[in-house]
Amino acid sequence: MSSAERQTAFRRVADDLRTALAGDSFAAGVPLPTEAELCDRYGVSRQTVRRAFQDLVAEGLVVRVPGRGTFPASGDGRYIRQLGSIEDLMALSADSALQVLDPLTGSVDPAAAGRLHLPDDRVFTASFVRLHDGRPFGHTRVHLPPAVGRRLAEAPELAGPGRTSTVTVIGLLDQLLDEPIAEAEQSIAVASAPPDASAALGLAEGAAVLRVDRTYLDGAGTPVELAVSHFHPERYTYRVRLRRSRPPRREDRAP
Amino acid sequence: MSSAERQTAFRRVADDLRTALAGDSFAAGVPLPTEAELCDRYGVSRQTVRRAFQDLVAEGLVVRVPGRGTFPASGDGRYIRQLGSIEDLMALSADSALQVLDPLTGSVDPAAAGRLHLPDDRVFTASFVRLHDGRPFGHTRVHLPPAVGRRLAEAPELAGPGRTSTVTVIGLLDQLLDEPIAEAEQSIAVASAPPDASAALGLAEGAAVLRVDRTYLDGAGTPVELAVSHFHPERYTYRVRLRRSRPPRREDRAP
DNA sequence: CAGTGGTCTAGACCACCCC
DNA sequence: GGGTGGTCTAGACCACTGA
After folding, report:
1. Confidence class of residue B75 from pLDDT cuts 50, 70 and 90?
2. Which sequence spans correspond to the domains of chain B?
3. Residues with Cβ < 8 Å from A210, sequence gap 6 or more?
């Protein structure tokens, strides 16, 4: 598979390792190729290989142990992504693909329109699946205010059913809007898969899935996108790294 | 002065920048020192300075913009840095209660010990339910390294089965540790409820639940707590608000 | 145009692990 | 001891920003 665009050397190395990890190329306790070996294989310097591993560590895909080697982290082949900021959501496309099921068109949906704080019930709606390694792991239904929906409907990536690309709707939207996207509200729960999602994911109707609702807001706090996703329970894990607001230092612990 | 240990050059640079950022040394919109300047000031190579910035970027403290410079990430100062923070987890107790099922005692659990990076298989383990309005919505099993587990076992809140309080284990732990808790890694997925969790939540065994694994790390990156929670699918939703780390625009310099 | 950060190379020394 | 990853240096070229 691999990504279409691989601008930099370290990205190429990281992409290849990522897809190899997603497949069954590396057993659980078996170390990945060493830095030296990858230097040879790709004809790059050691720092470049290290830069690639750096991303994989940050994504939680591998664990590196000094003196021993680099090992696959969780092993159960789920799609894992660090999602701690909006940038993470926009970059989601790096190693996954979007395939359009229903292109972006106008429709009437009171529930979605209400959640977008729209004056009437008209919204633009599209649905698509996200694929990793050619297999669907998530189904998403996106709702947009008509004003932006009309403009985004011209984007070729969302034009026809079956179109596959590596974009994110939120990434396209951000380029299009005058005011950039500033915030997202997200809720995560267990739900029963609705018919379209279960069909797209190859699950029985009503199967338990991870449901993620995201509302994106621009700088003024106006909702600009509502995305309702259902994820395959065995192919997706949501991961966040939480930090303390103030970096803890020994000195400032005293009350 | 300064940090007790600064083993590496890049850490020293990063530490200094962090404390400078924590103070008001850098106004919002004013760029930090450039790589070249820090190279001079610390007498290190450019890669070393870059390695320091890399941590600060990962921590969400600064934003780097090619061609322009490096800026504090908190932007307008009135913004709170990062919602979905560890403080939120510690404050979880505000409107929920903790009821002890199995008090904190020593046990042998290779899987948990491995995830805590412990040298052998001994851990301290406790389990409890979380209640809201008197009804259980989550079951949690907590694992601690023996060193801290022994001390925490003396806390009255975790002493006997049936004890109810409004604490969080992580809150108790943070007061007890020499080094404060700095980070948490969290993963969220759909799972089948194990027997103890399904019993505690009043669900059929194997029912689909929301599984949340959290590993808490201290400032040195040492894992200090592993918590595995299972949440009732109809009584719990995980909410996060994501914020964009906004690079300053040309217009909004100068107050 | 000079300055910024992003990438990359080809060396080097170290602490650690395992044989 | 030989191999691993962790750190560091002193160069280099690039794309981009700003005046």
Report:
1. very low
2. 3-72, 79-240
3. A188, A189, A190, A191, A230, A231, A233, A236, A238, B188, B189, B190, B210
